[in-house]
Amino acid sequence: MSSKISGQVSPQPCPHILDFRSRNGSKPFRALQDCIRVKAPGGRAAIRREPSEVPRCGTCEESSRPRLYACVACAAVFCHAPPLHSHASSHALSIPGHEIAVDVDRAELFCCACRDQVYDRDFDAAVVLAQTITATATTSTSGSTGMQCNIAGSQPENLRKRRRVDYRPWAPDSREHAIIGNHSMPLNDTTNASSISSTELPWGLRGLNNLGNTCFMNSVLQALLHTPPLRNYFLSDRHNRYYCQQKNGALNGTKNSRLCLACDMDAMFSAVFSGDRTPYSPAKFLYSWWQHAANLASYEQQDAHEFFISMLDGIHEKVEKDKRKSQSPGSGDCCIAHRVFSGILRSDVMCMACGFTSTTYDPCVDISLDLEPNQGGSGKSSSTKSHNSCNVEADFVGSSQNCGISTLKGCLERFTRAEKLGSDQKFFCQKCQVRQESLKQMSIRKLPLVSCFHIKRFEHSSIRKMPRKVDRYLQFPFSLDMAPYLSSSILRSRFGNRIFPFDADEQDASNDLSSEFELFAVVTHSGRLDAGHYVTYLRLSNQWYKCDDAWITRVNENIVRAAQGYMMFYVQKMLYYKASEKQAASGYDVQR
After folding, report:
1. pTM above 0.85, yes or no
2. Is the peptide bond before 28 cis (omega within 30 degrees of 0)?
3. Is 215 a catalytic residue?
4. 530 within a domain of the structure (yes/no)
5. pLDDT of 198
């Protein structure tokens, strides 16, 4: 049976919380108010009897488990670490009436019998009030770090938004209708048939609903859903989720069954490319990702790049377990994630005394780049460029030599430029048999099918002693030649035509066809470090579209060039044009 709240149907509440409230009322929750601690400013609430207390499981004495829960009835702390064990559930089953506990690190109620989070209005009101009082006290007194919530009465204004709120439908007023009509063009709008017809819409272009601060996930998923080799793999049924679930016992509900991110990706590809234009809710995928990355399982804003790496790692981990053998990600043959995104970086460390060079190779699924410095740099031709600040929003097409803006090519040149290591980073030279000063140079030995460039916009400020965001503009080309950054080109520029210290297969990476790339997706971040928003721009059939969660709009390429790029996705040019001609599925086999 379901109940209605604010006109919306809500699921039946947990029977254990109802039984607990009928026997104890709200007294145990009121007792917890004195233990609610909030880390300022505006941080997450936690449960601590003393601010410096380190909770430990009463059974295994561990304090580093994924989840620690304090029993509301007896205040005993137990861990919950599925699928290994759950001392919290064991405690609840052994003593009737002790099923309800509270997460000591998140201040969220949990039913140890149902093994799921539960909701209580009185308890949540106390937590929200504690956070609000702490935020208010922080703005008035900068030295305040946290306050206990033991004040009753009406809730203050400007409460911080939380995920457990009653649903209230939104309808635009006349002013908002005008703004929407002037600045957006829904793809399924029949009134604009003259400008956008259903036959002209790119296949698979569908919005993704925001499930609560999940724009970081939606932005990356939109890029992956339209990555040509990845799309071809899933749409050609190379990973059949029904067969995979049956193979792992998921359909029969066995205990050994485990979640598979690739299966959820397969389901998402089927839904997005079904022809349905209504926004899709990737709730199942979000739940599976939470199981893989338990430390990031919350409705708080996360980093899009961190999600990208974690998701690829989850797909790779599942495939390795199924194959029961370890394969090197650098080979690019272990799973579809690495077949598409995996490349190899080469690192050369040269002794400045004798010239001996130590070479190492590392697999990578993306390349993280530092923005070029604002002021005059050193080395090569970039030292002649002007790095004065300028208003790039007003004139984003200005020359980088004139206004000092960063360029993606400049960042790549800086990444592959030889740098002298400091005196505290001397390496042991095998030829000199002593530690010597050295030069280090990075290059790309093997290019992936899809290159992902991550721009380091979040850094730690040495002046303010806190994280900050770098808002400087970055110019990025729509077509990119990666040949100058390959190991063969770097070594040739270093040694000329007289010496070729290549490995036997080093020159394979310098193929002209595989070094040219086309931009097809840009993930942008706007706003502050702690309260920003992610949006993706997709290039489909040489037309750009803005994917802002559930909203999809067509935009001019100048809008994309002016965007604050955070992650750029480039695909090999031959794959991009085959995808544009709708021949990629038959023209290229990602399992070559």
Report:
1. no
2. no
3. yes
4. yes
5. 43
